[in-house]
Amino acid sequence: MKKILFFLIGLGPWIFAGPAPAQDAAGQQFQGFNLQGYSQDGQKAWAVNGSKADILGDKIKISDVAAESYGEEKMNLTAESGTINQTDGNIHLEKDVVITSQRGTQLTTDSLDWNRTADLVKTKDPVVITVKDMTLTGEGMEAKPGLKTALIEKNVTATMDTDPKPEEKKTVTITCDGPMTLDHSKSYAVFEDHVVAIQEDQTLKADRMEMYFDQEQKQIKEMVCSGHVVIIRGANQSFADKAVYSGADKKLTLSGRPKLILLTEGNDAFTSLGN
Question: Which single residue of 20, 77, 172, 240 could bond 258 by disulfide (Cβ 3.0 to 4.6 Å)?
């Protein structure tokens, strides 16, 4: 097996392994391909494999991409095809792109740009992100490869299970114009611009929604809504500047010039606070 050693300034060593290349007018072609990247301290940082590679100038075009990143969290990445820029180390992937993190978070999209220097993945295409009991869809995304943090640019829809008991499964659907930011390491998400949350017969609208998750209980711990808050339940409506939902006691507290106070029995009690 022929091995070629590449050194790129600022990226550390790359090691490429493959059979002897077939020569043609366009460049070199390899059947079977493996390219590995190392950090400055000699630790393996990532690896890219493919069934075939065409070397065309400073570009390496790969078929059947299977890649791994070994940062703070291991990540697997697959795609039908990809292009490696040998000058800056960046990778462009196309068709059936799938990222799966070590925690099981998964992203699917049509194309993806992986900036190795900045350690970021980006796309302008529609994306689907699955995180345990939550599914996110939207257009345009920027994230760390391990998907601990992600920003979806626009047309966001999030569907999540809000009750840890399987027999009492309750689903809430949240939409917003975007952006939407998810920080899985802090169990935190922010929805911005024309936010609408719907659960059963209740609808909540706001300019901004901050959500904190209880990972152990697999439920919403706290939800803070601000800006033109409207709560609709059946024929009743409430208006306020701010609304805070507590998952511990399942209460929604309104503050900032509330126009209407709704009181119901049981866990769905609404309580209003003054300015």
Answer: 240
Per-residue pLDDT tens over the stretch 55-105: 888 888 999 999 888 766 788 899 999 998 888 878 999 999 999 988 788
251-255 and 74-85 strand pairing? unpaired
Position 31 confidence tier, pLDDT thresholds 50, 70, 90: confident
- Which regions of the chain does DSSP assign to beta strands (E)? 2-8, 12-18, 22-23, 28-38, 44-56, 59-70, 74-85, 91-101, 106-115, 120-131, 134-143, 149-161, 171-176, 180-183, 188-199, 202-214, 219-233, 236-246, 251-255, 270-272
The answer to whether 87 and 106 have CB atoms below 8 angstroms apart is no
| Domain pair 1-121 / 148-275, same fold | yes
What is the CATH architecture of 148-275? Sandwich (2.60)
Nearest in space to 161 (alpha carbons), one of 115, 130, 192 = 130
CB 223 within 8 A of CB 208: no
41: left (phi over 0), alpha (psi -120 to 50) or beta: alpha
Q: Enumerate residues 6+ apart whose C-beta is below 8 A from 41.
A: none
In angstroms, rounded to a whole number, what is the distance separating the alpha carbons of residues 114 and 122?
7
CA distance 167 to 215: 19
Q: CA-CA distance, 25 to 213, in Å (whole number)?
A: 57
Q: What are the DSSP calls for 98-116, one per residue?
A: EEEETTS-EEEEEEEEEET
Using DSSP, state whether 167 is helix, strand or coil: helix
With a CB cutoff of 8 Å and minimum separation 6, the contacts of 2 are 17, 18, 19, 20, 21
Segment 150-177 mean pLDDT: 83
Instruction: Determine whether domain 1-121 maps to CATH 3.90.226.10.
Output: no
